[in-house]
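Below is how a single chain appears once it has passed through the pipeline. First comes the sequence as given, then the structure the pipeline wrote out for it. We keep one example in the README because the format questions we get most often are answered faster by looking than by reading.
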Amino acid sequence: MKALTLKKYSKSSPIIEFSDIIKPKIKPNEMLVQVHAVGLNPIDNIIPTGTFKPVLHFQLPATLGSDLAGVVTEVGSQVTRFKPGDAVFASIFDLGIGSLAEFAVVPENTAALKPTNLDFVQAASIPMVGLTSWQALKERGNLKAGQKVFIPAGSGGIGTFAIQLAKHLGATVATTTSTGNVDFVRKLGADTVVDYKKQEFDKVLHNYDLVLGTTKGDAIEKSIGILKPGSKILSLVGPLDAPFARARNLNGVLTFVFGLMSRKINKLSKKQKVDYSFLFVRPNGAQLSEISKLLEAEHIKPVIDKVFPFEQTKDALAYLAQGRAKGKVVITMNNGLTSISDKPRH
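Resulting structure:
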């Protein structure tokens, strides 16, 4: 079968090629899924650089990608929730396997039935951004109605989903975006929109309960100033911290290193009585099922910037790396069962 594989890590020029690989075999708790569409995420451009080699373990050559939507073709002997012919969506991130292939192995506990009102392209856009937003805002952030949350980069993949989820939870939402996207993020539900080309968010926002850190640079440190005592910063972009290392059972050296990396932000946070933590999304089929209910009820709608055919996946990754996508970038596997459009889907 065809797959997009990483052959060699490199900061500047990783070797990524289309390959013919053997169709994978499944274990008793797994399913084989014919992939119809794959949602791309920024991590798909970071993994080939080797930045996460100490954390994410792949055996090269490795199939890239983590989000998918498709149809179950085979189930293991212990699988009880799905059967061949079921349309599913899933994230297989951090499992050492990939989704940018004609078929993918999907553990039963990572998958959910595809929302009935979404096509495969729309469904494939959801898993990582949906799970990240859910685990940040609901699970760890415990966001409540009436609280205030700051979600930077509101027009990006995470931002477009997280804003909608936060509004569904009853929160007041602030975000940042460029001038041309101000109206767009307002329509998603943002109450306060800071045009980063005209204003500094830390000069405008005050007394917030939660920050979802989605942008690199000094934004995380600046965010401390907008939070009230007892509030939280959940960072998706680092710095990595010692609790993250311990949760993954990393060795003492890495735990120490990650502790040093987060020393400054932890010191600043404690001074302001704010809790900082790094969040690394994990696959979770049960949570995807809950997210599916919100999608079917249209409390949350997918936002897709552009769709590329599988043979143009390298171009799609390059486009994603520019950081200008409004919503998600999705790959279709050209099996005639997905609809293709270069226009944003709202």
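The first helix runs from residue 43 to 46.

See the next section for the split statistics.
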